[in-house]
Amino acid sequence: MSTPFTPVVGGSALPSDAPAPATERNVPHRGGPANPSAEALRAKFGAAVLRVDVVWGETTVIIERTRVQEIVRWLHDDPSQRYEYLSDLTGVEFRDAEQPIEVVWHLRSIAFRRFLRLKVQLQRGQPLEVPSVWPVYKGADWLERECYDMFGIRFAGHPDLRRILMWEQYKEGFPLRKDFPLRGRFSRAEQLRQALAANPEARYSMEELSIADAFEDLPQEMRNRLRSGEKTGE
Amino acid sequence: MATIKRTVEVELSTTGMDAQGRPVRTPLAVAEDGSTVAVAAPPSMEPELEGEHMLINLGPQHPATHGVLRLVLELDGETVVRCIPHIGYLHCGFEKIGEYRQYNQIVPWTDREDYLNSIGNNVSFILGAERLFGIDCTPRATVLRVIAMELSRIASHLVWLGTTCIDIGAFTPFLWAFQERENIYALLERWVGARLTTSATRVGGMAADVPAGWTEQLQTFITLFPKTIDEVERMLTKNGIWVGRTIGLGAMTAEEALNYGLSGPMLRASGVAYDVRKDFPYLDYETYDFDVPVGSNGDVYDRYLVRVEELRQSTRILEQALRRLPDGPVNVDDHRVILPPKSKATSEMESMIHHFKQVMEGPRPPIGESYVATESPKGEKGYYMVSDGTAKPVRWRIRPPSYVNLSAIPKMVEGHLLSDVIAINASIDIVMGEIDR
Amino acid sequence: MGLINRPETDVVSYDPKGGDGWVTTRLDFLVNWGRANSLWPMPFGTACCAIEFMASAASQFDLARFGMERMSFSPRQADVLICAGRVPFKLAPVIRRIWQQMLQPKWCISMGACASTGGMFDNYAVVQGIDTIIPVDVYVPGCPPRPEGLIYGIMMLQEKVKRERAADTSLRNEMDPDPTSQLYIPPSAINELSEPFGNSIHQQRSGL
User: Fold this and answer.
1) How far apart are CA B20 and CA B33, in angstroms?
2) Cys staple from B302: which of A69, B104, B269, C143, with CB 3.0 to 4.6 Å?
């Protein structure tokens, strides 16, 4: 049983006389040629594109929060853009309290060999919520969970937004926020006490047990412990 | 279900580029008639027998999870119905600490995060930092960094090889792999003083130039290493047990792999010819003559073939790099980032001021942000740094290839047996330090 | 070497003025010799130190010379817990549980700076030394320690084992954590052990 196979090649959508990729040298701080997708976004979405910057050769497009999913889906589906690869998704909080919190998407088009950075700026005082791009890129699953865990930014439409790096009942807050001190808010003994309070034996969360009808089969004492809301090893 | 016979002949073209200078990808797994084969997943076991599902906890302390990974598996007999991975057991706040350290002080942190690829991480980070400063390093440093990255790639793939073999049951290649790793450790120790946690780069150059006689030692390594690869291949590649344990497992199609954000050998084994060194080159990689192995089925066996071939290609790059290593300074002559020589710093006023500013404050880049992606052995590794003009970054983000690769494990493991979970997990080549940071 | 006061002998020897009889000291010697030369490690490897641990177990440095090649990943069959790597707070209950699952006689080697004191990770996420969670016998400094360093630590542990006496029942006391807080040393001691020192004190400004 053999199916014909053609590898997906980088740069396959580029014309055959396009220059071969080369190491960038003497990249200017600002200015320089922008990614053509920025113009295409402006043409297609108009007012939703708030600003285009080119810093160190990388194009950053700042877009409106509400239209993130639409824009990302267009970038993914449109045959002239073909951003089929989500490289990274993260948040940035500046030290200056006036500056907004930014959510950053790094998109790559392997067919066109392009790199694009999308940003959404969340003004302080607004709820930290952004549409999720999980329906477009499955790889955004854990990336968005981490962004939530570290910054507290909620992603609307994410199937399972919960903490991933810290344990689920972590009480100290969101670590990468600037008002979170480096060593945490509690004393070391208190941090240790909270960490050790988790009982590794009550190790399945209610959510995990709901996937299998196995709750009835657990030993009675384990069921009692879970019902009484005992914290799991999460 | 019909079994699929499959001959594996490995054919490589000798040139890496076609007439237009675009890289040529070479498929690895070729059937008798010359076409490449897509193998279906193993048949499900006895679907008539129904029973209750078991919930099994694998980890976080487990010999075969490659670190502190916890997999909660819902099993129907031995078959995995669903897998829920839990990570964060090695979360050490790297990104938070990066906001409290100067750029040169962050370099030791990059060692510890993907600790199998420490010197490669040093180079990746410093490329991003130098982009933020607007500095291009010297020709000698460029070649030395290529040597560092490729040595690191070999070292990381050797650990992957050793641990995967142990997980699947073959103990001897582990010892061979670690013996070769000792040779690399000897090289790195002579160069920067440390075996594993090298901290070899600085903004504008390297921590140290290679000592006398180092290039001869590297040449010896390059000459002798392919024999070890041959030995490993002779033992494993056509071995019935190895092939039987790895074929058809955890297959990801090219579209799935791209959508899940996989990178590195995971992506290439699925048939996507994306290598950051070829598509978004850095450190003059476009001038080196090397191939990028691409698989077709995306299963564990293809990933094994891709990585073993990458070992050979890395040796090829090392040889070319060694031949073209130019003389000259290893550090850029830029007083903003490079400390002046001590003789000048203690005698000339200007050098003393530069020294003082750098040591007390640290080099300060202009306001901006940069993301330079490099090809680490695990995949696309990049450091996204945002600067507000101060000596310490506002945000230091590590784009962890293993993190995104591991997020696909629930998809890859469904329908396979429990022992296959171990093999698939090993094939992703995860490093928990990078995943949890 | 000069900072540690070593007793004069490193094995249990017959002291006519002491309370031990000749048979007990010979028995102690035999038992300790057997234990010291077959310490089955429980490699609790988390990070970079685990790679150096694996390198110690590989051909170049070969832990099998010490009887330690049988890595028991099940704590029930292990003698010495080698914590190789940093331990974040999320992993703390796991290492505590693993330690409690090990059977006496058991020892603990804290390998590397991160396991001993938290290392370079003086932040919200990392336990500042596993001795705040479990009792440690030997600390091996280094980041990561060379295999020779780990082997030195192992040999130090072997000397410690050889000096034990069966009559000393306090050696085999299981640690007794406080049932409410799960801490086995007082919180003030933990805070004191975890206090930043050295460069950590100065490097806590973000920005300029």
Assistant:
1) 29
2) B269
Number of cross-chain residue pairs from A and B with Cβ atoms under 8 Å apart: 206
Which of A2, A83, A178, A226 is best to mutate for the B interface (most B CBs within 10 A)?
Answer: A2
Domain enclosing residue A50, as ranges: 36-167
Nearest beta carbon to residue A113 from set B74, B279, B407: B279
* pLDDT tens readout for residues B304-316: 999 999 999 999 9
- Inter-chain CB proximity A21 and B278 less than 8 Å: yes
Q: Give B224-287 as a DSSP string.
A: HHHHHHHHHHHHHTT-HHHHHHHTTTT---HHHHHHTT--THHHHHTTEE--HHHHS--TTGGG
Chains in touch with A (≥3 Cβ pairs < 8 A): B, C
Tell me the C-alpha distance between B268 and B310, whole Å: 11
Instruction: Report how far residue B98's alpha carbon sits from residue B117's, in angstroms, rounded to the nearest whole number.
Output: 19
At B337 the pLDDT is 86
Closest CA to A183 of A168, A196, A173, A193: A173
DSSP string of C76-116, one letter each residue: GG-SEEEEES--BGGGHHHHHHHHHHSPSS-EEEEESHHHH
CATH of region B103-429: 1.10.645.10
Question: Percentage of residues in chain B with pLDDT exceeding 70?
Answer: 88
Would you say the ipTM is above 0.95? Answer: no
Q: Which chains touch B (3 or more CB pairs under 8 A)?
A: A, C
Chain A residue numbers with beta carbons less than 8 Å from the beta carbon of C90 are 166-167, 195
